[in-house]
């Protein structure tokens, strides 16, 4: 099918729903560990509590990719029904999760939230490949990254912004502060509205051969065989990208799960207080606990705010690449390699920052890696696979995102950082080393179509 080139605003409209998706992911990534700690979780238990996120991605994304490849509605298209269903469920979960009365409830809602976000997210990756000609693929994925950067920065700052408006960071023991509850409610609203914007401003191409499409759709019991067949016949470039993704996502899972305890302790010197350490029958001890708890919540706001910097720098990274890739070719391999190495340096620098303000620079470097992770692997992959299977291939590719996170969650990250020392800040050093390894793994990519694409050659 000859696909026409789309204008910037057409690509913007089809990608705008990612703003809401990233609000969900940024609130989850920046503040779920804080919620877990507030509800009494031990530091070493936090990665395991996060296992919901990668497990749901492993199960949901290939299924949604497979189903969306076989969906067509003259009114709603192929991918948009999944955007909408995921948005409704995600918004409900985002609103409820900070109101969790107990740790197990919060962990359960994380399962629901992450599964719902994945229902919306996977088809967005496939939509770029569906809608755009090869010459605009890098442009499309980078535009998504630009919107993701905006969402990451705003959502990561939401609890701090809400707190600045006078909504309290203080709360009784085991209760999430009102500032976090309001921030998650705003996130739920933005999630739903941004997805609706894309659903109603974007059209989709129908299947190229409708008769063949209907025949494929009528086949029974093909899901598992098709998934296994596609895994077995995975292109070599996809396997090499998978190795890069493994180390990249191990690093970012480490950040999402342990940055809050690591930085509140090491940089802000305000670890979460343990109620059992205070004699709550004494008024002065109770007051000391409240002060320590409020200090932890405020420094957690600041950790989220500084983490938001990586969304801002990834946005700047994406903006530069958006303008550049709309006119000229790039070497995707070397762009990705350099970005990941800079991100690794950013993580390692967190151990050495002399004051909290320096975290802005650390997370700026991390943002270069994040911006590249969200665009370059998908641009390289989309040039190496059958376009008719784009949804299921993108879903299978997600395995290389979730498997390292599962390994990290079930003890990998705790084991790795304790090889360096007992302090939780060592987890950020592990994240940095992992990103640098991922960067050098790009040297394995040799497929010329994956490495570079010249718009002038079309």
UniProtKB/TrEMBL annotation:
Membrane topology field: Multi-pass membrane protein
Pfam families named in the record: MFS_1 (PF07690)
Transmembrane portions of the chain: 12-36, 48-68, 80-97, 103-121, 141-162, 182-200, 241-259, 306-325, 334-352, 358-380, 392-413, 425-445
Domain of life: Bacteria
Keywords, in A-Z order: Membrane, Transmembrane, Transmembrane helix, Transport
InterPro entries per record: MFS (IPR011701), MFS_trans_sf (IPR036259)
Location within or outside the cell: Membrane
Identification of the protein by name: MFS transporter
Organism in which the protein naturally occurs: Aquimarina rubra
Organism classification: Bacteria, Pseudomonadati, Bacteroidota, Flavobacteriia, Flavobacteriales
């Amino acid at each position: 099918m000859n696909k026409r080139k789309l204008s910037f605003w057409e690509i913007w409209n089809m990608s705008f729903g990612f703003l809401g998706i990233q609000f969900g992911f940024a609130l989850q990534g920046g503040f779920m560990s804080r919620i877990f700690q507030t509800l009494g979780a031990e530091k070493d238990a936090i990665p395991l509590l996060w296992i919901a996120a990668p497990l749901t991605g492993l199960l949901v994304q290939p299924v949604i990719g497979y189903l969306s490849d076989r969906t067509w509605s003259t009114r709603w298209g192929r991918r948009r029904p999944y955007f909408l269903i995921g948005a409704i469920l995600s918004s409900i979960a985002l609103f409820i999760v900070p109101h969790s009365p107990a740790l197990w409830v919060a962990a359960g809602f994380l399962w629901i939230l992450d599964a719902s976000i994945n229902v919306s997210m996977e088809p967005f990756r496939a939509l770029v490949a569906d809608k755009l000609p090869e010459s605009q693929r890098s442009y499309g994925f980078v535009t998504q990254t630009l919107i993701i950067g905006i969402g990451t920065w705003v959502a990561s700052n939401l609890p701090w912004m809400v707190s600045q408006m006078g909504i309290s960071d203080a709360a009784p023991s085991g209760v999430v502060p009102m500032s976090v509850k309001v921030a998650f409610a705003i996130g739920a609203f933005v999630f739903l509205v941004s997805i609706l914007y894309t659903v109603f401003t974007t059209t989709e191409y129908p299947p190229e051969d409708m008769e063949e499409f209907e025949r494929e759709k009528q086949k029974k019991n093909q899901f598992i065989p098709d998934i296994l067949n596609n895994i077995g016949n995975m292109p070599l470039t996809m396997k090499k990208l998978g190795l890069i993704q493994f180390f990249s996502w191990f690093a970012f899972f480490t950040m999402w799960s342990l940055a809050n305890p690591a930085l509140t302790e090491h940089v802000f010197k305000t670890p979460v207080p343990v109620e059992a350490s205070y004699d709550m029958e004494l008024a002065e001890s109770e007051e000391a606990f409240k002060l320590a708890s409020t200090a932890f919540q405020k420094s957690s706001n600041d950790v989220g705010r500084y983490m938001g910097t990586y969304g801002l720098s990834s946005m700047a990274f994406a903006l530069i690449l958006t303008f550049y890739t709309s006119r000229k070719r790039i070497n995707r391999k070397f762009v990705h390699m350099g970005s990941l190495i800079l991100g690794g340096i950013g993580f390692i620098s967190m151990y050495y920052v002399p004051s909290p303000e320096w975290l802005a620079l650390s997370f700026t470097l991390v943002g270069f890696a994040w911006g590249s992770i969200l665009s370059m692997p998908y641009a390289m992959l989309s040039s190496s696979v059958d376009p008719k299977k784009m949804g299921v291939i993108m879903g299978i590719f997600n395995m290389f995102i979730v498997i390292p996170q599962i390994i990290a969650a079930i003890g990998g990250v705790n084991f790795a950082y304790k090889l360096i020392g007992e302090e939780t800040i060592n987890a950020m050093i592990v994240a940095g080393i992992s990103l640098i390894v991922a960067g050098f793994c790009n040297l394995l990519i040799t497929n010329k179509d994956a490495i570079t694409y010249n718009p002038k050659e079309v």
